Amino acid sequence: MLSISTPVIGLTVLLVGVQVLYSALDAINISYGTTAVRDADTWIREGLNISDPERILSYQRSTTILSRIQSWVGLATVLGVVLTGAYAGLVQTLTKTGFGPSVQGILLIAGAVFASRLFNAPFDIYKTFVIEDRFGFNNQSIMLWLRDWIIGLVIGLIATTLIGGVVLWVIQAVPSLWPVLGWLVVIGVSLATMVIYPRVIAPLFNDFEPIESGALHDAVEDVFERAGFDCEQIYEMDASRRSSHSNAYFIGFGRAKRVVLFDTLIEQMNTDSIQAVLAHELAHWKRAHIWKQLAVSAVQMGVVFAFLWWITSSGWVYTAFNLPSVTYAALAIGLLYAGPALGLLSPVTNRLSLSHEREADDFAAETMGGSRAMTQALQTLAGENLQNPFPHPAYAAFHMTHPPIPTRIRRLREQHGNNDADDGLLNTDDSSTETDGDTDDDPATPAA
Which residues bind Zn(2+) (predicted)? Predict the structure, then answer.
């Protein structure tokens, strides 16, 4: 058991405090959303085509509660490992293996990845085969889930050990410059991932068919021409193999850039809405959003590496946590401080993403000659994914990177005119639609 000291108390207070904050935001968001959804009953039934709005609330409660339980159990596990001295004991054992510090650190990283995957597995199984199944989203078998889990574990082990190994080697080889070189390694990996992920990793999980002929291809060519692009890589992904959730995303740069449309999205939307979603995704490239996000991420990582350098150079961390004087041991403790700190800054960093989503919505409306196609697409995405369109402003600020659906629709109609008949579906006066919140980052929610 660690002795009580200011650093130990500080880390505990930080981790528990942030968890309490997130739990409070979850509770406020559920209560707020419940009232807002019931007040907007008519719009949800007619605009989102949901016959029973209570299903939105039930789905939100189920996923939120499971996520928060997972977070609290994870926090208790981490604090138990650190505060009982188990982490210090593990590092002591590694230093006696006869391996060099870099190999010791790689073993620690690999163990952490494996333990994390094992810990998260029961929660993911429950979400997939209980919650998602209950609401009609799950399409995968347990064998497919197990296959995905094993592949994800292997990829996680390879990626983290390679990246961590390079950073640890740099620490040992160039101790005076390792924060700068480590930062450059992470930036390089971020760029490489944008090329490697769509071509190597994603095909391990899904099939991607290029859209090369038929009515959908003609619609794709049409929107590319309107948007001022040459027709490049547009793929349909077999998302329905695992889930009925719909989505679309843009990834890559240069010749590796591509737009991916879920087959579920193609099935759920009409041609105009698909074109609007495609135009929205193209805007992220045309407006250089990818590079701007990378620049912000690089600044964040620079600050994190500077903090980690200070942590590993300070003798107090080794004393407070009973650690042997090996840099990798202090790095892990430093990351425990840095993670929650970055989370507290998310209301600031999310604002860039909010502005990018508004720009992309505007581009889609301009490309499609009005707001109708994009607003229909947004309503379909929200309805098909049982997304609560009314997040609490405080919750949205911390957790979300897209404005709420009603806010986006209202803004599109104000900025670009409502070239649809006035459907009277957006007459709710809920204050959440006026906030700079965003669409939840959960994979089940739309990225468009």
Answer: 280, 284, 357
